Amino acid sequence: MLSRRNFALFTLTLAGLALPGRFASAQDGGTARVGTVNPARIFNEMQETKDLKQKMENDRKNIEDEEKRRVADVEEAKKRRGLFTGGTEEFNKANKELIEKAVSLQTWRELIKADLQTQQKTQMKNLFEKIEAATKDVATAKKYDIIVVQNSSELPAELEQLNVDQLRGIINQRTVMYNNGKYDITNEVLAAVDAKYKTRK
Fold first, then answer.
1. Alpha helices in 3-88 (DSSP H)
2. Average per-residue pLDDT in the chain?
3. In this structure, which CATH number among 3.30.479.20, 3.30.450.90, 3.40.50.300, 3.30.910.20 belongs to the domain 22-200?
């Protein structure tokens, strides 16, 4: 059976250092304006993601219904084959029909699986590119020179649930050690993405 597919929520992790709102530029001796953004939060909360999740849920139900119909066809073909004695012409004909339906079911499942994966990868890429473009627009309007990706993975309260490598992985995903929010543009980027999406609907 096809497993229930939830649109995967993704996190973006880039190696970085905790940076203040302004830091000295090594090239020209001036100052660079630095901001932060949380693309994972934007991805989860943007309206287009919510609409895609709803569409995927509807598609999942349709796929499940179609799969049930195809499985029922295979079971029915198996029952028909059981009405005949092995080795007879009728049995061989019914057996061929059963094999064809079983192979068709398996092929259909593989095609659906590949199609869903392709759709999800394409959608994820498209959504990230929209977030990236909106980040650039907001940063340009606010005259920021650099926008640092902030990934705020929370450390679990119960460390017994993790081994050392898992804990190290969570720590390594933290791209900003401290952010007072003054230079964070996540809300502005989210609003910009949703506004663009609204005009295209």
1. 39-45, 47-81
2. 86
3. 3.30.910.20
